[in-house]
Amino acid sequence: MAHDHHDTHHRQDAGHSHSHGHGHSHGHGHDHDHTDLDWAEMAPVLEAQAELYTPLYRQAMTWLAREVTEPGLVVDVGSGPGVVSCLFADTFPGARVLAVDGAEPLLERARDRAARLGAADRFGTLAGDLPGVLGELEYPADLMWASQSLHHLGDQRAAVAALAGHLAPGGTLAVLEGGLPARFLPRDIGIGRPGLQARMHALEEDSFAEMRANTPGSVAETEDWPAMLTAAGLEHTGTRSFLLDLPAPLSDEARAYVTTALSRLRDRIGDGLDATDRDTLDRLLDPADEASAHRRTDVFVLVAHTVYTAVRPA
Prior knowledge:
Keywords: Methyltransferase, Transferase. It comes from Streptomyces rochei. The chain is α/β, with parallel strands linked by helices. The protein has helices at 39-52, 54-67, 83-91, 104-116, 156-164, 196-214, 225-231, 252-269, 275-284, and strands spanning 73-77, 96-101, 123-127, 141-147, 167-183, 235-246, 301-311. Helix 5 (156-164) links the parallel strand 4 (141-147) and strand 5. The longest helix has 19 residues, at 196-214. Mean pLDDT is 90; it is low at 1-35.
């Protein structure tokens, strides 16, 4: 199995911090810029969001386990701080799990988490830029999971082909991309103009398109993931969407996620909102305001993520 690498590399993806279908700061406030973020500082945010999304990930893993019964090696491509990697270790107790990411501070958190959960003896990490670092795998994967990481790579079709090349015969590649944007607010929240979050989603789509266009080596690609998987020589075996439904009233953890996600959206797309919507968003982020997301009783979390699976022919 791949050995651990402890060099620090600039991370290609935003980990598991997207706040919507694509706005993965993967709170998923998913950041789509490629600046040198302080990953050690971001790690708690990424962990909190992935922990909140655990019911969704567990649904996906239950589904995957019907196709992949006893994998020897599970590789989490773009693992972030390892919350999902450790869920794989729990789902497949006989497997070795490898968390792969470009940010060593996040992989350090992943190793610590695996140790806390008693899985350190079958848990490894690999630091480096995707997909090239996968060339350091010592043997091919029986299950490879890429959650909102491929869209941060310039040539997504080539990236899928590269991942497919590191699967064992009969191995499965599972790609989580797309779905439905996270919704936190009713259409009419009693302040500002109704439909605020729908307008924010439109700006997020524009931000995502700009991120894709500005990604080094970007290649325009129709986002037909089954077709990309098939072009890579794999057999598409399934597509399914999984729902995270946290109705109001929210737990303190879920509310903190919402306020963090909205704050990060304010930083990223706030300038694209008109003055009325900006003022409304600022009120939602003001803890002293009775109408803020910190205090409202109608805040919720509703999001869907889509997973595509494909098998390398034996």
